[in-house]
Amino acid sequence: QVQLAESGGGLAQPGESLTLSCAASGGRRSEGIFRLYGISWYRQAPGSARELVARILSSGSTDFADSVKGRFTISRDQTKNTAYLQMHNLTTEDTAVYFCMIPRIAWGQGTQLIVSS
Predict the structure, then answer these.
(1) 94 touches 112 (CB < 8 A)
(2) How far is residue 22's CA from residue 108's CA, in Å, rounded to a whole number?
(3) Looking at residue 30, what DSSP letter applies?
(4) What is residue 99's three-state secondary structure?
(5) Nearest by Cα to 52 from 40, 38, 60
(6) What are the φ and ψ backbone dihedral angles of 8, each rounded to 5 degrees?
(7) Which of 1, 16, 40, 52 has the most crowded Cβ, counting Cβ within 10 A?
(8) What span, in angstroms and rounded, lies between the C-alpha atoms of 106 and 89?
(9) E strands of the chain, at which residues?
(10) Mind listing the pLDDT tens digit for each residue in 6-28?
C-alpha cells in the first residue's frame, strides 16, 4: 500500500518562501509512482473546502490555481520518490493544511502552514 507523508510546514511571515515535501513509501509499488500517476497538492484553510493548489501530471505538465500562479512551483524527484511544492511570496491567505495526493491511490495526512506577521 502506497503511503504519502508531507513535511515542511510551519510558521512563516508574509513574503517569505517555504518548500513542502511529499514522500511516497510502500515498497516496490511506490517506485516511480509520481511519474506514472502524477501528484497533486491541495490545501484546506479553516472553515473552507479543500482546494486544488497545484498538480503535475504524469506527462510532466503542470497546473496551478489562479491564487498561486507565479508564486508556487511544483516538482518531483523520481530518484527520491518525493514531490515538492515551492512557495514564494507567501501571504496570510496561504495559511492552510496542505495535502499531497496521488489520484486514485493515496492522500497524505497533511502539513500545516501558518503565515502570519
Answers:
(1) no
(2) 8
(3) G
(4) strand
(5) 40
(6) 105, -5
(7) 40
(8) 29
(9) 3-7, 10-12, 18-25, 39-44, 51-56, 62-64, 72-77, 82-87, 96-102, 106-107, 111-115
(10) 999 999 999 999 999 999 988 77
What SS3 class is residue 57? coil
Q: Which residue do the cell numbers 515498497 mark? A: 27
Q: What is the pLDDT of residues 63-107, one digit of tens each?
A: 999 999 999 999 999 888 899 999 999 999 999 999 999 988 999
The three cell numbers of residue 82 are 518525493
33 secondary structure, DSSP code: H
Show the cell assigned to 65.
Answer: 490555481
CB-based burial label for 87 (10 Å; 0-12, 13-18, 19+) = buried
Provide the grid cell at 22: 511529499
CA distances from 60 to 1, 55, 56, 112 (A): 24, 9, 6, 26
Residue identified by cell 500562479 is 69
